[in-house]
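Most newcomers find our protein records easier to grasp once they have seen one. A record pairs a protein's sequence with a compact description of its fold. An example says more than a description, so a record of this kind follows:
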Amino acid sequence: MVGEYVCTLSEELQKRAKEEINEDPERRAEDIQHIRDWLKHQPHIKARTDDWTILRFLRGCKFSLQRTKEKLDMFYTCKSLCPEWYKNRDPQDKKMRAILELGGMLPLKGRSVRGARVVVARLGLPAAVNFTMDELTKVNQLMIDLLMEEDEAVSVTGLEIIIDIEGMTLTHVAQMTPVFVKKAMTMMQEGYPMRPKGLNYINTPAAFDTVFNIFKTFMKEKMKRRTHFHGSDLDSLHKEVPKEVLPVEYGGTNGTIEDIKKYWLQRVDARRDWLIEDEQYGVDESKRPGKAKTSADLFGIEGSFRKLNVD
């Protein structure tokens, strides 16, 4: 979607947007313009200013103009402070392609019992050991960006993520340092307008408790309440995400992982120009009014780390 916003939501989702996130169709254009004018007066932020991008942030902040401004600033700040995740995202790049072809992060068609769009993240794929967590995270973020850009409903319904830990190696667990986890959680909770509705962990080994305790330290209370552990019990998962949404590998009826992977490889290729162009947006801290922000400001763990309980 480029330029002027054209609504593609069903009547049901338009009603939900009014009730849940304070969207007023009569005021929407005015709110979008207000944020666009504000962005023009931020010398440090280079942002997308099309209607759809701004609307996505307004929805993610329930149309609070102040929160929208804060989230946009945080989003573009995180992008610039995490070049390892947001630079060189050409899907035709050899290494990027190899990771994309693993199918480690796949949005599914259909919705959870809460009406959210569902994404499955397979963190323990055997071939994933050939790449660093930063390289894998770059592709995971790319897939989330693409889904949010292409499916308007996500901006209203939110996202639910299934995290499959099966096969995850100590090599990757060791890279999930408190700093890495803080960075990931800050980006997703403070920077993205994504309305997370649930985290469903499956196939979790006992050793994962240690890693999850680090994640939990940086999770908002609301997110902790929306976290579910299913072990290897697919019946338990099906109570949160219906079988008709899941691929056959997870006891579902919604195609195979291979089918879903092929579909998303096509979408990534179709949006290659958008992904490459997207790298130019971010912040220039030398132009920020007041004090420049640093990685230590956003992702430093002093204080937080003392609260960790990793027994």
Remarks:
- The first helix runs from residue 11 to 21.
- Strands lie at 45-46, 105-111, 117-122, 159-164, 196-202, 227-229, 282-283.
- Residues 152 and 199 are 21 Å apart (CA to CA).
- The chain is about 50% helix and 10% strand.
